[in-house]
Amino acid sequence: ARQKTILDIQKMKAEGERITMLTAYDYPFARLMDQCGIDMILVGDSLGTAVAGHDTTLPVTMDEMIYHAKAVVRAVESAFVVVDMPFMSYQTDVRDARYNAGRLIKEGGAQAVKIEGGCNMAETIAAITAMDIPVVGHIGLTPQSIHRMGGYRVQGRQEEQAKRLLDDARAVEQAGAFAVVLEGIPRKLAAEITRELSIPTIGIGAGVDCDGQVLVIHDILGLCEKYSPKFVKKFADVSGMIRQGIDDYIREVKDGEFPTPDHSFD
Ligand code: KIV
Ligand code: NA
């Protein structure tokens, strides 16, 4: 299949087709979801927690994002690939943001970059868009803001906060983002934002009325056993399968059942 473009993604909102997005951080996962026909792949900075074992996404570096992006891009034939801009790669100033967004495209092979923030990032989104790099916004529960939020909590519950989030959504669209992730906000607010905007909204913990859905692949496959937030559904129990396979390997090697002559060279 031909690789999807920004035009395909925007057309899906226009035609009411739900947009599917998952995170991938390496070649095998990206290949599998691409073959399944996923619309968009996000090389998320959630790789910091999902595969690198950090407590937050804050330590993730540009070089790490590029390394994982390259592995994913090598596997992809049809999905649209978005790569996250990590903490400190765009907040410091607009020039840094432009430079680092360019690196994710040029070195990482991304088709678009994602930035956390609303009104406060409008100028940055506009600057990156102006260098012809498509931008996905990300508002609501923004994990890089963990210390401001005081934890991973649903955003926009109070009326004042909800109004600010609607302003953020408008600002992101106005600045030129071609899609926006809505994370951790009440379903009614997400529905209102989705109605208000002409760009697609992609929800995670944002109810049932967004134009698309994104989740972390490790969460939906049951690979992340530490905790499971309410918005995650476990579509498979891969941890159980992996543990079974490893248990069997250990037992067969210990017992001398494996390897057999069939696995040996003459
Ligand atoms: O890094 C990530 O995985 C994300 C999504 C979950 C939206 O930003
Ligand atoms: Na992210």
From TrEMBL:
Obligatory cofactor(s): Mg(2+)
Metabolic or biological pathway: Cofactor biosynthesis; (R)-pantothenate biosynthesis; (R)-pantoate from 3-methyl-2-oxobutanoate: step 1/2
GO CC annotations, alphabetized: cytoplasm
Binding site residues for 3-methyl-2-oxobutanoate: D45, S46, D84, K114
Residues holding Mg(2+): D45, D84, E116
Keyword terms: Cytoplasm, Magnesium, Metal-binding, Methyltransferase, Pantothenate biosynthesis, Transferase
Cell location: Cytoplasm
InterPro entries registered for this protein in UniProt: Pantoate_hydroxy_MeTrfase (IPR003700), Pyrv/PenolPyrv_kinase-like_dom (IPR015813), Pyrv_kinase-like_dom_sf (IPR040442)
GO molecular function, one term: 3-methyl-2-oxobutanoate hydroxymethyltransferase activity
Presence of the UniProt keyword ATP-binding in the record: no
Catalytic residue list: E183
Entry's cofactor comment: Binds 1 Mg(2+) ion per subunit.
EC number: 2.1.2.11
A single GO BP: pantothenate biosynthetic process
Cited Gene3D superfamilies: Phosphoenolpyruvate-binding domains (3.20.20.60)
Enzyme's top EC category: transferase
Catalyzed chemical reaction(s): (6R)-5,10-methylene-5,6,7,8-tetrahydrofolate + 3-methyl-2-oxobutanoate + H2O = 2-dehydropantoate + (6S)-5,6,7,8-tetrahydrofolate
CDD domains: KPHMT-like
Record note on quaternary structure: Homodecamer; pentamer of dimers.
Function: Catalyzes the reversible reaction in which hydroxymethyl group from 5,10-methylenetetrahydrofolate is transferred onto alpha-ketoisovalerate to form ketopantoate.
Family: Belongs to the PanB family.
Protein's name according to its UniProt entry: 3-methyl-2-oxobutanoate hydroxymethyltransferase
Organism expressing this protein natively: Geoalkalibacter subterraneus
Lineage: Bacteria, Pseudomonadati, Thermodesulfobacteriota, Desulfuromonadia, Desulfuromonadales
